[in-house]
Specification:
The complex is a heterodimer of chains A (about 200) and B (about 200). Chain A contains ten helices and four strands, in the order αααααββαααββαα. With about 200 residues, chain A is of the alpha/beta class. In chain A, helix 3 packs across helix 4. The longest helix of chain A is centred in the first third of the chain and has 15 residues. Chain A is globular, with a radius of gyration of 21 Å. Chain A starts with 13 loop residues before the first helix and ends in a 5-residue tail after the last helix. With about 200 residues, chain B is α+β, with helices and mostly antiparallel strands. Chain B has two domains: about 100 residues, Nitrile hydratase, beta subunit (Cyclin A, domain 1); about 80 residues, SH3 type barrels, CATH 2.30.30.50. Chain B has seven helices and five strands. Chain B is globular and about 60 Å long. Classes of the chains: A alpha/beta (about 200), B alpha+beta (about 200). Chains A and B meet through helix 1, helix 2, helix 7, helix 8 and strand 3 of A and helix 1, helix 2, helix 4, helix 5 and strand 2 of B.
């Protein structure tokens, strides 16, 4: 019998393919299992939207912090103990107003300021959002449940380089005077991506 | 490269499959892929631009049908094979089946020699460059005119970094375009901001 040809071999499942790489790494002493456990912890506990929510709540209650945040996002979030990877040299905070809605997308891949606003939700990485958000912004937002009146201008930010973005939502008027901790509880990840208003 | 990954403005896609408070991960292997490629980056096997470019080099039908994390997995495997960490034969033996990887890379490029400086308010045009290798210029801004809003700190030049080509760091410019200029008569009115590397830009006439 001749050797089995590649062409006739069925494609391995994704689980089998991941296991193959993990086993190859393990064989080379790279300790992949430790990395998987560490990543699990970071994904579940560290890179979560609650970080960005704390930033937003602080910006709503502390005008001096808000100024620092808008001037240099990376430095300002450090004040709250939130760091960004070395290659994210720049965090631009996009301030919504009653007449302006900022929206973030990455058309080329799916980049985000994940240490601040959390690892991105599934739909953010889907082909539909990446293809349409830049060209049909108002339509896409409406389909996602955010029906903006015509007087609200839309600005879309395509994360094509290493600058990272987060949206600073408008504080709901009924929450003025709330404590920072309670305010952080109403800030959703979607509002920091810009597909929802609070 | 003018690859299948360059999705901005492509038509024919339907509604975003959106749900509030959607999850990042759905299956346990997805986190493992993310952890394994992070480990490879940490160990210096490849950098993030090589990682992105290996996704872009996926066979287009595979790219479109793969989930986000299957694309990560394919890039990770491709680069481990190309860098000599493991052979494709070993991966396929361990996986008990064929293991699709990306197509080979074209040569990269360094910074454009005649780079210009820009100030906020300058009108700029995106150069009409067709780059065979990695590039962070979405196709929808090629040849289009916009206005500079700000300049970023200097960053490693991805067109070079994805290919091991020497280059100097250069800034990106936040350039504001009108959706109506990008897709005349065929877009929702909006301002579209793109982070554009200095090498991709020239002063508008």
């Amino acid at each position: 019998m001749p050797d089995q040809s590649h062409a006739h071999q069925a494609t391995a499942s994704v689980e089998q393919r991941v296991a193959a790489i993990e086993a190859a790494f393990d064989d080379r002493g790279m300790k992949p299992r430790e990395s998987v456990e560490e990543f699990q912890r970071l994904a579940d506990e560290q890179w979560v939207p609650q970080n960005g929510a704390r930033v937003v709540a602080r910006a709503w209650t502390d005008p001096a912090f808000r100024q620092r945040l808008l001037a240099n996002g990376r430095e300002a979030v450090l004040e709250l103990g939130i760091s960004m990877p070395a290659h994210h040299r720049h965090l631009v905070v996009l301030e919504n107003t009653p007449t302006l809605q900022n929206v973030i997308v990455c058309t080329l891949c799916s980049c985000t300021a994940f240490t601040v606003i959390g690892l991105p939700p599934d739909w953010y990485k889907d082909l539909e959002y990446r293809a349409r958000a830049v060209r049909q912004s108002r339509t896409v937002l409406r389909e996602m449940g955010l029906d903006l009146p015509p007087e609200i201008e839309i600005r879309v930010w395509d994360t094509t380089a290493d600058t990272r973005y987060m949206v600073l939502p408008v504080q709901p008027p009924e929450t003025v005077g709330w404590l920072e901790e309670k305010l952080a509880g109403i800030v959703s990840q979607d509002s920091m991506i810009g597909v929802a208003r609070l | 490269m003018d690859g299948i990954h360059d999705l901005g403005g492509k038509q024919g896609f339907g509604r975003v499959r959106y749900s509030p408070k959607a999850r990042t991960f759905h299956e346990s292997w997805e986190k493992r892929v993310n952890a394994l490629y992070s480990l490879a980056v940490k160990r210096g096997i490849f950098n993030m631009d090589e990682y992105r470019h290996a996704i872009e080099r996926m066979e287009p039908r595979h790219y479109l049908s793969a989930s986000y994390y299957e694309r990560s997995l394919t890039s990770l495997a491709t680069l481990c094979v190309e860098k000599g960490v493991v052979t494709l034969e070993e991966l396929e033996r361990r996986a008990h089946g064929s293991f699709p990887i990306s197509a080979p890379s074209a040569p990269g490029r360094s910074n454009v020699p005649e780079r210009e400086r820009f100030q906020p308010g300058d009108r700029v045009r995106v150069r009409v460059d067709h780059v065979a290798g990695h590039v962070r210029m979405p196709g929808y801004i090629r040849g289009k005119t916009g206005v500079v809003v700000s300049e970023s700190p200097a960053y490693p030049f991805p067109d070079a970094l994805a290919h091991g080509v020497d280059a100097v760091d250069e800034p990106t410019y936040d350039v504001r375009f009108r959706a109506e200029d990008l897709w005349p008569n065929s877009a929702d009115p909006a301002l579209v901001h793109v982070g554009v590397f200095q090498s991709y830009l020239q002063h508008a006439p």
